[in-house]
What we know:
Elements: E1 23-27, H1 32-40, E2 46-50, E3 70-73, H2 85-106, E4 109-115, H3 138-153, E5 159-164, E6 166-168, H4 181-192, E7 194-198, E8 205-206, E9 208-210, H5 211-222, E10 228-232, E11 238-239, H6 240-251, E12 254-258, H7 277-282
Parallel strand pairs: 1-2, 1-3, 3-4, 4-5, 5-10, 6-9, 7-12
Antiparallel strand pairs: 8-11
Helix pairs in contact: 1-5, 2-3, 4-6
Amino acid sequence: MDIPLISRWHTPLLQAKSVVKMKILVTGASGFIGQNLVKKLPTDWDIIKFDIKDYPDTRPKHLSFSNVNWVIHLGALSSTTEKDAKRVMDLNLAWSIELAEECEKHNVNLQWSSSASVYGNKYKCAVDENKAAQPLNLYAMSKYFFEEYMKLKSYEFTWQGFRYFNVYGPHEEHKGSQASPYTQFSKQASETGVIRVFEGSENYKRDFVHVDYVVDTHVKMIQKKESGIFNLGTGSTRSFLDVAKEIATTYNARIETIPFPEHLKSHYQEYTHADMNKLSMIL
Length: 283
């Protein structure tokens, strides 16, 4: 399924250039962002792909770090509605901490995927990385706790955590209800001719960022020595209803309003907007 790219909302891609040949270990390599990242990494780099769903009993100490320059850790239990706290904290926090410890042991640099969900619903403006966190769910908590762990440890290797805003693009169809509005609306429009949006969708605004920009940022930042937590969005917002209207035009579909699900009301982000100054100064 092709996902429409709205050119005026799509940030131009960074051009990833292979300056030095690298050996990269990618976790979550068969996931949404992992698949896109592996395709974008320079072809002369040595890429090791790992996904825990294929090896569920594997811990970081079981992985090979021989001659690895960077780990790009994208593997996570990403459902924002997951209720099993033990499972979330094991896969997203404990596993990540063990991975960081192995990176220290083998002197390997680390990038990982964090999330704008750590900001919660507190802010209705562009947020920078210094804003206080207010995680709304277990997933967001696990991401925030790992960020805090990394800041407290002050590892000497280079480490970079990226707070993804609302990423969309190819290879996220398997995420079902957790997929971006772009994917969900495109699927509905192409299959039924009807796009279903929640009541009040004109008021829910997000910083939608295409996956190509996300993975190109990962590659570009590999060439940098700066450690820290970085927002990764576009610096602009768009409502769910605007996205639905654009896709409806593309597919000649109609829009239907449905009630807002009760189970989402307590932990649904109403607004996300990245302040991109910190990352822009580096890139």
